[in-house]
Specification:
By secondary structure, the protein is α+β, with helices and mostly antiparallel strands. It folds into two domains: 3-213, 4-Layer Sandwich (Metallo-beta-lactamase, Chain A); 226-289, Orthogonal Bundle (Arc Repressor Mutant, subunit A), CATH 1.10.10. Helix content is 29%, strand content 22%. The strands form four sheets. Strands 1-2-3-4-5 form a five-stranded mixed beta sheet, with helices on one face. A hairpin with a 2-residue loop joins strand 8 and strand 9. The longest helix is centred in the last third of the chain and has 24 residues, at 215-238. The radius of gyration is 19 Å and the shape is elongated.
């Protein structure tokens, strides 16, 4: 852990917007940056909690302290990786609030991400569909279906302030991990295009990393980055390098080798997308282009 991470204000509720406070969980990692950011929406009697985070007593105590005497209208989860949703159950038990948000989802294996297995204990009281809303005095949250990082991923829009809570779909510090079989590059790119079309979002609050002050600019760059990566993959195949394990060291030079297995999952996600579009085909581990 570097000095910057050590100095982060864990357990403290920070005001990041007139209607939003943030509490940072002490679970930094190569996939969570400085940790999971839990957001408390609303400053009056009614509040919502977005991405309650890991089931860590210190973090849950900090959330309870920040909530104080307010009524928790909903505990909302963007998706069910273990750094996002496990604190929902104990927080619900303490506050009496319903768990409302993404659908439950568990897989035996979603690729080599030791910190991001699915939360098998997640039990929502209500699953939100596209466009459904919850609210309290002075605020409203609208669910946006954004599959790709996971098939059950939601973002939450706060129209009163122009904020969008993006979970792991869009982050300012890193691109999202897309790991088949549940991670889906086709769906992810479609979801990015969906967010890019939204001109009303002033700022993104991701679950990890800093707020995104120029969201459409970042999303446009992310789409461009994925298209560039796709072209890079096709060039590798055309050069006779059609096995993912051989592509990754060439494509991710300078990246910590411990992250190469995850990078390989992202390459696989691109290849599956290209296969659907009729650009490539596979035979075992070997991929070739289709003329």
């Amino acid at each position: 852990m570097d000095a910057a991470t050590q100095d982060r204000p864990y357990t403290l509720a920070e005001m990041v917007d007139p209607l939003v406070r943030r509490v940072l969980a002490r679970n930094p990692s190569p996939f969570t940056y400085t940790g999971t950011q839990t957001y408390i929406v609303g400053t009056g009697h009614d509040v919502a909690v977005i991405d309650p985070g890991p089931d860590e007593p210190e973090h849950i105590a900090a959330l309870v302290d920040a909530i104080s005497d307010a009524r928790v209208v909903a505990i909302c989860c963007t998706h069910t990786h273990r750094d996002h949703s496990p604190a929902a159950a104990p927080l619900a038990a303490h506050t009496g609030a319903p768990v409302i948000g993404c659908a439950p989802l568990t897989l035996e294996d979603d690729g080599p991400r030791a910190d991001a297995a699915f939360d098998s204990g997640y039990r929502p009281d209500r699953v939100l569909a596209e466009g459904e809303r919850i609210g309290g005095k002075g605020w409203t949250l609208t669910a946006l279906a954004t599959p790709g990082h996971t098939s059950n991923h939601l973002c939450f829009a706060l129209p009163e302030s122009g904020a969008l809570f993006t979970g792991d779909h869009v982050m300012g510090w890193s691109t999202s991990v897309i790991s088949p079989p549940d991670g889906d590059m086709t769906a992810y790119l479609d979801s990015l295009a969906k967010l890019y079309a939204r001109e009303q979002d002033r700022v993104y609050f991701p679950a990890h990393g800093p707020a995104v002050e120029r969201p459409r600019q970042l999303v446009r760059g992310m789409i461009g980055h994925r298209r560039s990566r796709e072209k890079q993959i096709l060039r590798q195949i055309e050069a006779g390098i059609g096995v993912i394990a051989e592509m990754v060291p060439l494509m991710y030079k300078g990246v910590d080798e411990r992250l190469w297995p995850t990078a390989g999952r992202s390459v696989l996600a691109h290849l599956i997308d290209l296969e659907r579009r009729g650009a490539v085909m596979r035979s075992g581990e070997q991929w070739t282009t289709i003329a």
